[in-house]
Amino acid sequence: MATQTSPTSRPSRIRVGSAPDSWGVWFPDDPRQVPWQRFLDEVAEAGYEWIELGPYGYLPSDPRTLAEETGRRGLKVSAGTVFTGLHHGPAVWEKTWEHVASIAALTQAMDARHLVVIPSFWRDDKTGQVIEDATLTAEQWGHLATQTERLAREVGDRYGLRVAVHPHADTHIDTEENVTRFLDATDPDLVSLCLDTGHYAYCGGDSVKLIETYGERIGYLHLKQVDPAVLADVRAQGTPFGPAVAQGVMCEPPRGVPELEPVLAAAARLDADLFAIVEQDMYPCDPDRPLPIARRTRGYLRSCGV
């Protein structure tokens, strides 16, 4: 008689990686960031096999060079990342596509299958200056949904990539209310979600609940934790996201929330192939700080079964 495999004993279909973000990299070129060669060396040394591209232009944008540099370190690329302001409607399409196409082409060339799409900030991530209203109008919500679907269709048709939209602090897709509104307004066959556990907690959301409610929409994960004490101060003071990160609002697991083991268990129950990419926002940070954290985090995630 055949023996059934219990869900808890199945091999994990979650592939863990890290990203330049965990090395304090937010921009293509910044003197406070570690050189890209050091990032690649250290992310491999920490025990990761998968990475994201990070801000376009930080890692080499020539596919042959990047393939050589990642390959000799035993690294593979899981996704590229783009920022978009699609709630502005068709008027920004050409500019958006010009930005997206180069990144999508490099992502495809690295044999990755995902494009993480982050909505534009309503206040500047460096200065905290308010750029536009924090609340979208009904018309802007309509633009956001239809233009995201258009982007997903074009990226899929031209580059074979799957779009995963990333809810993010200080953007218009942030809280549970706004995330669910966006999901309900978009085609599940076109648009999936990159659930960032830290950003969702930062904005008051419950990652396990979201996975259990909208599991079919979860296409990608970012693993991150928030320091509750710092977050309470950030909320009380109305601190913008950039300065909040400088205060240490995103912390090393397992010191913060949400607990990642229940999140990973809920994701595993989806019985889907998922990437879970570690991102601990630390801009700016001491260049010697990321590697020890990355080693400890990889060990902690192994203890969670991935």
TrEMBL record:
It comes from Streptomyces tabacisoli. The keyword Iron-sulfur does not apply. GO terms for molecular function: isomerase activity. Residues 40-280 form the Xylose isomerase-like TIM barrel domain. InterPro entries: IolE/XylAMocC-like, Xyl_isomerase-like_sf, Xyl_isomerase-like_TIM-brl. This is Sugar phosphate isomerase/epimerase. Gene3D superfamilies: Divalent-metal-dependent TIM barrel enzymes. Keywords: Isomerase.
